[in-house]
Amino acid sequence: MRWNSIRTKLILFMLIATIVPTVATMVVSYSYTTDSLKRRAIEENRQLMFQGKTNLGNLLDNLNRTSLAVYTDHEFFRQLELGYDDYTAEANTYVSLQNIATAMGDIWQVYLYRIKQQRATLVIQSLPRRMHDVALDENVQRYAQDGISMQPTHLSGTYGFNASPYYFPSIQVFTLHRPIYRMPSSERLGYLSIDVKLEALSRIADQLYVRDKEQFYLVDDEGAIFYSGDREAIGRPFQETGHDLAPFLASPSGSIEADGSLFVHERVETPLINMTLIKIIPKHVLLEEANRAAVVNMLLIALSLVIIIIATIIVSFRITRPIRQLVRYISQVQTGNLNVDIQPASNDEIGVVSKRFRNMMDRLNNLIVREYQLEIANKTNQLKALQAQINPHFMNNALQSIGTLALQHKAPQIYKLVTALARMMRYSMYTDESTVTLREEIDHAKAYLQLQAQRFENAFDARFDLDPATLDLSVPKMTLQPLIENYFKHGLEQERSGGWLRIASRIITRPADGEEAGMIEITVEDNGRGMPLQRRIELNERLEEVHPERLGIRTSHDLWRGAAADETSSGIGLVNVLTRLQLFSNGQAKLRIGAVDPHGTRITILIKGELDSNGSVNH
């Protein structure tokens, strides 16, 4: 199936006309659906994250109020402030810590250190433990040295206590560390640390995301991860997840699209700590519903396309079958079978064309018989004209005799003119060779210009700008003279001095539009009257239509009649010159007419030449 056939074009057009709107509709629908789902997901997740923010804020507020019991329990604070160190004070301390430990169901253990007594008390799951004359736990000292703080999620420790007879495994907890001050001074009386089980955060966070599809992080301003759906990420820096925390700290809430995911974040600010809830929804999860719809649509479209393609091919074959049959008839005519039996295959417009073509071939067969007769008569007349020509040797000898006589009478100018005329006649009358070199054409042109210079009393100046590498180019005989004659018939102004005619040749190395590297350019230009723009356009259009493959049976007669018509027109054989050039060069020749600024005419010939290794034309 050729790409330039009507059948192929029809199939492609019908497929494009059906496929493009269908695919465009699917793309627009998918785009609208994805945008709608994205907006809805952002809004729903913002509301969900706001609810999570509220729940987390309540949890941290409860933890803060629970830790403030050391101040609201006046008896406990009085004993701590006065430094009582007896059995009653120890019992009250245990009761107060037990109340703190049971105030929230997720508290794992409570640690109290009294600075003055250097005594530590630990209540873990309602079991008290005490140590005397011990230093403050290093972990508490590190986190509480600047005031109240939250320690990120970690495995619970013993705060320096020895192993308990009761087994309490280490679990993941986050810890509130609070210094206890002698109010209203800044003197520290002790330290309170409360370990809260991670389940307190997981109950809130697990309602905010879908495990195995989405990701969730609870991060403080330092980048520490308090909670995550990825258990291995808990307690590690947020940067290790491959994300940057800075964009989420820039605004209290919002959404960000990056790295093929949607990030929804909400900031929580409490007296204890500032945290950010970050939810990551991959695009493929976000658009899962849209993708399923797209797959269904694609399956339906694929089924539709199969039906459309089959129907298109059937319709196109039925429409183009008569055209292809007509093309076969034309191909047979082109091979020379002018008596082909043309049978119209349909009654539509194509059938009408077939009938008209059959009628045309009938008339053409009748005309060809008469045309052959005219061609034979034309050849006979040409033969008779050749037989009636004067012997070229006789003419050459006669001109030499006249030249000798001119020298004897001391008229060298006449001798030069007679010699030039003899060269021209010898060049034109010897018909053994139909092609010559550009050098021989230039010599003939110089002889012709020498005679014209005498005729017009040197009213013009002949200039030659020839590339020696082009002089061995083979061209049809009598190529340049018809172009030069244009100047003397239509361009030369005898009343104005300073006229010139220039003949140039070059090998094109930097091709412009319509040119190829290695082509030979031959230019004949003058500064005469020039040619009107409209006439120049018409001639160029006529020259563009000249192609050797368009010359059929009537070639000889057409060239004869066309040459005669050109001789009486302002073209002066331009069509004939171009036709011979194209026949000589297998169609690789061009001729165009241009203008010379400010006035004048430029005729340019472009012809393909074979170059040798030195860049010269092969003869």
TrEMBL record:
SUPFAM superfamilies: ATPase domain of HSP90 chaperone/DNA topoisomerase II/histidine kinase, HAMP domain-like. It comes from the Bacteria. It is a multi-pass membrane protein. Gene3D superfamilies: 6.10.340.10, Histidine kinase-like ATPase, C-terminal domain, PAS domain. It is found in: Cell membrane. InterPro entries: Bact_2-comp_sensor_kinase, HAMP_dom, HATPase_C_sf, HATPase_dom, Sig_transdc_His_kin_internal. Keywords: Cell membrane, Kinase, Membrane, Phosphoprotein, Transferase, Transmembrane, Transmembrane helix. GO terms for molecular function: phosphorelay sensor kinase activity. PROSITE patterns: HAMP (PS50885). Residues 317-369 form the HAMP domain. One of its GO terms (cellular component) is plasma membrane. The chain crosses the membrane at residues 298-319. PANTHER family: SENSOR HISTIDINE KINASE YPDA. This is Sensor histidine kinase.
